[in-house]
Write a structure and sequence with these properties.
400 residues, alpha/beta, Rossmann fold, Helicase, Ruva Protein, domain 3, 5-stranded parallel beta sheet, 3-stranded antiparallel beta sheet, 17 helices, 10 strands, globular
Length: 400
């Protein structure tokens, strides 16, 4: 190796001698992960004693937040480095047993990051023709939410045309209860092929839900942002924040929504620190959908960071379209047992039931029909499901 070549960092010998066997084993694991992702410089003989030569198919060790496009057998895909295995390994070695709660749990998280087979890289959400077509169908079925799709569909078309990852601002849907806000968020996530993380804000009492709680707290824990970026295969997890207007503003551990001031700004979200792990994560590609009933109950700085969508009450025709969409979604699990359309009489009965229960009621009605070897859901099936679920007839429409 010439004098001008960059030398990979090596661990201090004195530190290594002082470390116990467990720490040294973790270091050896880390060296293997590190070696596989190095391409800036040759691997030294000392490093090769602990790892194989670098795999040429691996990307170089790049800073957290780096985005790169890969080509594999002609297919192109974007991915992002969301965390740093090297930093996690150092924190694992320095995890002081005298400081804070949950040392073993933190060590387990550090080890998971340090041993990550993708060296902190995660796939970015990319649109496809099929996903775009599915969302266009959803837009047609949910005509009362036209403004939402006026934002969403052009963003997806642009990403597809330019071969770029999906990039959306935080979306805040505001409207009366039962208008389908949460249902729409779930459907968008499903059609983008991402399982969403749902956070019911009225049930949260601390900032720790997003950013984790410092180890000095008795209930110290990792935040959901870090957990999603560590555990999931995507750098674009979808978070659905339900009833954000009912979140506690002064819980035992601070303002529940406090971390969103950073997470809903692209620049600060690029390096978002989890208070429990003391590690930074690239969270700027997280996709956010929030729902609320009362705009006035939300702090103006959060409103300024979001794209606000007012969801109106759907018309009778739009209600029927939504119910048909729910039916077509539910029949999939029964194969070809049911026909593709629900009768108008059954739709009429379903449309007068409690709107928040529509999906559950229809699912129960279908099960009842199959149990009697019938291939169609009739109005009596839906009435039976309404009675079984304890739902009450109502004149208000909408779905979640």
């Amino acid at each position: 190796m010439s004098a001008g070549d960059k030398q990979p960092e090596t661990f201090n010998n004195d530190d290594a001698q002082a470390a116990d066997g467990e720490v040294e084993a973790r270091r050896a694991i880390y060296r293997r992960i590190w070696a596989r992702s190095l391409s800036q410089a040759p691997v030294t003989a000392a490093l090769e004693t602990h790892a194989e030569a670098p795999d040429p198919l691996e990307l170089p060790l790049s800073p957290v937040g780096t985005e790169e496009k890969l080509t594999n057998h002609g297919a192109k895909a974007w991915r992002k480095r969301v965390c740093n295995p090297q930093a996690a390994q150092r924190l694992a070695d320095e995890n002081d047993p005298e400081f804070g709660n949950g040392r073993e749990q933190r060590s387990a998280w550090y080890t998971r990051i340090a041993e990550d087979e993708h060296a902190g890289w995660r796939d970015l959400c990319q649109p496809t023709e099929e996903r775009l077509a599915s969302l266009e169908n959803l837009a047609g079925e949910a005509g009362h939410a036209g403004k939402l799709f006026t934002l969403l569909l052009p963003a997806l078309r642009a990403a597809l045309a330019a071969d770029r990852p999906v990039d959306l601002p935080p979306v805040l849907m505001i409207g009366e209860p039962g208008l389908g806000k949460t249902y729409l968020a779930h459907e968008i996530a499903r059609r983008l092929n991402i399982v969403p993380k749902v956070v019911s804000l009225p049930n949260q009492s601390s900032t720790g839900v997003f950013s984790g709680l410092d180890p000095s707290w008795r209930n110290a824990k990792i935040g959901q942002i870090a957990q999603a970026l560590i555990m999931d295969a995507t750098a674009s997890p979808i978070f659905i924040l339900d009833e954000i207007d009912k979140a506690m503003r002064s819980g035992d551990y601070g303002d529940v929504l406090g971390p969103l001031y950073d997470l809903w700004e692209k620049q600060t979200a690029k390096s978002f620190e989890d208070d429990y792990l003391k590690l930074c994560f690239a969270a700027d590609r997280v996709i956010w959908f929030a729902t609320a009933n009362n705009r006035q109950a939300i702090a103006k700085p959060l409103l300024d960071r979001a794209f606000i969508i007012e969801i109106p009450t759907p018309s009778a025709a739009q209600i029927m379209a939504i119910l048909r969409s729910i039916y077509r979604d539910l029949i999939a699990k029964w194969g070809d047992w049911f026909g593709v359309e629900l009768s108008h009489e059954s739709l009429t009965v379903l449309g007068t039931c409690s709107p928040r229960q529509a999906r559950k009621i229809l699912d129960l009605a279908m099960t009842h029909a199959v149990a009697q070897y019938r291939h169609a859901v009739d109005p009596d099936d839906i009435r039976h499901a309404i009675q079984l679920s304890g739902a009450s007839p109502t004149q208000r429409y909408g779905f979640v």
